[in-house]
Design a protein that fits this description.
The structure is a single chain. The chain is mainly α. It is about 80% helix and about 5% strand. It has a two-stranded antiparallel ribbon. Helix 4 (about 80-115) runs parallel beside helix 14 (about 370-380), helix 6 (about 125-155) packs parallel to helix 9 and helix 7 packs antiparallel against helix 9 (about 210-225). The longest helix is centred in the C-terminal third of the chain and has 48 residues, at about 310-355. The radius of gyration is 32 Å and the shape is globular. InterPro entries: 7TM_GPCR_serpentine_rcpt_Srw, GPCR_Dmsr-1, GPCR_Rhodpsn, GPCR_Rhodpsn_7TM.
C-alpha cells in the first residue's frame, strides 16, 4: 500500500470512528480509495481532487471537532499566544528594518560622542564605544537579510545558491558579533563592579592596558565559541517537483544535522556558555550594584544630616557631587545590564530546552520565537543611545557640543595659521618701530 493511499485510508477511518460509525470503516479500503482517485483523474482535472479532498476533510473535522495528528507530532508551544506570535512574524520584516535604521544612526552617534577626547579618557567609555561598533555592524548586515527574506522571498519563492551562501554568512557573522556584544557587556559589568567594590585600588586594577585586553578578548573569543555552529550548519539541497507543467528546480537552504553529539554540543555551548552563564553573572552583579546604590543613598543622607564646620561642609558638598556622578554612571550601566538580561535570558532558556528536549521543541518553539528574539536583540542595541542621553549629563553635554560645533563651524571665522600669525606679528613690530 502506498503512503498516499494509506494516509487517506487512516483519515477516513478516523473520521468514521469519531462520528460513531466505526463499523462502516471496514468498507473503506485501499481499493475503493484508488478507484475514487482513478475516477476523479478520468474527468480531466486531477489537480482539483487534492484541494477538494482537503476541503471535505477540513469541514468534517470542524463539524466533528476531530483533530488528526500525524506520526511524530509534538504539542509544544500550543495556545492562543501562538497566533499572536505568528501575527507579529508577518510584520517582522518592516519592524526590523525600522529598528535597524534607527539603531545604525543612534550607534553611529554613540561612537562619535564616545571618541571625543574628554569622553575617551575613561576606560569604561572605550568599552561602550566598541559595544556600539559591534551593534552597528550587526544591524547593517541584518538589513539585506530582512529585505530579501521578508519582502522579496515571499513574492518570488526563489531559493538560489547565492541566497543560501549569504544566509550561512549571515548566521555566522551575526552570531559572532552578537557574542562579542555579550562579552563586552559582561566586561562592562565586571569593570564597574571592580571600580566600586575596590575603589581604593581601582586605579591599579582598572588600567588602560587591561581595558584593551578585555576589548581584544571580547572579539577573539566569539569565533572560538561558535566553532560547533560552523560545523553543524551547512547548505542543503531539495528537489522541487514540477507543478502545472513548470520544470522542476533545486532549492538551496541552510539546515543542520538534527542527530549526533555535535548537534547537542552546539546547543549546550550556545545556551549555557554564550547565554545563560553571562546572564547568571550579570544577574549577580546587577543585584550587587543595586545594593551598592542603596548603600550610597543612605551614606549621602547621613552626610546631609551631619553638622560640621564650614570647611567640612564644603568637603561634604564636593563628596556629595562626586557620589551623585558615580551613582548616575552606575544607574546607566545597570539599565544597560537589565535590558541585556531581558533580551538574552529567554534565548538561553529556549536554547537549553531545545538541547534537553530535542529537535521537536526546537522546530515548534525556538523557530516560532526566532523573529521575536531577533527584534529584542536589535532593540537592545538600538536603545542604548536613549539610555546614555537620559542618564549621563556628560554624554548629553558632549553630544550637544558635537552638534553645535558642526552646525556653527561654517559661520565661525577660520583659525589663523602659524605663518599668518607670524607675519602679522612682524608687521606689528615694524609699525611700532
Amino acid at each position: 500500500m502506498s503512503n498516499n493511499s494509506q494516509t487517506l485510508l487512516d483519515i477516513f477511518q478516523e473520521i468514521l470512528a469519531a462520528s460513531g460509525n466505526s463499523s462502516d470503516s471496514k468498507i473503506i479500503n485501499e481499493t475503493r480509495i484508488l478507484s475514487a482517485l482513478k475516477e476523479q483523474a478520468s474527468k480531466g482535472k486531477p489537480e482539483n481532487f487534492g484541494s477538494v479532498l482537503i476541503k471535505v476533510v477540513s469541514d468534517v473535522q470542524s463539524k466533528l471537532n476531530l483533530s488528526i495528528k500525524p506520526d511524530g507530532y509534538c504539542g509544544y508551544c500550543e495556545g492562543d499566544f501562538r497566533d499572536v506570535i505568528h501575527a507579529y512574524n508577518g510584520i517582522h520584516g518592516y519592524v526590523s528594518l525600522m529598528v535597524c535604521t534607527i539603531g545604525v544612526i543612534a550607534n553611529t552617534m554613540n561612537v562619535a560622542v564616545l571618541t571625543r577626547r574628554d569622553m575617551a579618557a575613561a576606560p569604561i567609555n572605550r568599552l561602550l564605544k566598541w559595544l556600539a561598533v559591534a551593534d552597528v555592524f550587526v544591524m547593517l548586515e541584518y538589513v539585506p537579510f530582512a529585505i530579501y527574506k521578508y519582502l522579496v522571498l515571499p513574492e518570488k519563492l526563489d531559493f538560489p545558491y547565492s541566497w543560501a551562501m549569504y544566509l550561512l554568512f549571515h548566521m555566522h557573522f551575526a552570531q559572532i558579533l552578537h557574542t562579542a556584544s555579550i562579552c563586552l557587556t559582561l566586561s562592562l559589568a565586571i569593570w564597574r563592579y571592580i571600580a566600586i567594590k575596590y575603589s581604593d585600588r581601582s586605579h591599579i586594577l582598572c588600567t588602560e592596558r587591561r581595558c584593551s585586553i578585555a576589548i581584544l578578548t571580547s572579539f577573539l573569543l566569539p569565533p572560538i565559541l561558535c566553532i560547533p555552529t560552523f560545523m553543524v550548519f551547512d547548505i542543503h539541497t531539495k528537489n522541487i517537483t514540477a507543478v502545472n507543467g513548470r520544470p522542476a528546480y533545486i532549492a538551496y537552504h541552510v539546515d543542520s544535522d538534527s542527530q549526533g553529539r555535535l548537534y547537542q554540543l552546539n546547543f549546550w555551548v550556545h545556551a549555557v556558555l554564550i547565554k545563560l552563564l553571562p546572564c547568571s553573572i550579570l544577574t549577580v552583579i546587577s543585584v550587587w550594584l543595586i545594593r551598592a546604590l542603596y548603600s550610597a543613598n543612605q551614606h549621602q543622607k547621613n552626610l546631609r544630616n551631619y553638622s560640621a564646620c564650614p570647611a567640612a561642609e564644603k568637603m561634604v558638598k564636593r563628596q556629595h557631587k562626586a557620589d551623585k556622578r558615580t551613582d548616575r554612571t552606575t544607574k546607566m550601566l545597570l539599565a544597560v545590564l537589565l535590558l541585556f538580561l531581558v533580551t538574552e535570558l529567554p534565548q538561553g532558556i529556549l536554547g537549553l530546552m531545545s538541547g534537553l528536549i530535542g529537535w521537536c521543541f526546537f522546530k515548534r518553539c525556538y523557530d516560532l520565537f526566532g523573529e521575536m528574539m531577533d527584534f529584542l536583540a536589535l532593540l537592545n542595541g538600538a536603545i542604548n543611545f536613549i539610555l546614555y542621553c537620559s542618564m549621563s549629563r556628560q554624554f548629553r553635554q558632549t553630544f550637544r557640543q558635537l552638534l553645535l560645533q558642526r552646525h556653527l563651524a561654517r559661520f565661525l571665522p577660520p583659525n589663523p595659521s602659524h605663518s599668518d600669525s607670524h607675519n602679522q606679528n612682524t608687521c606689528t613690530e615694524k609699525i611700532k618701530r
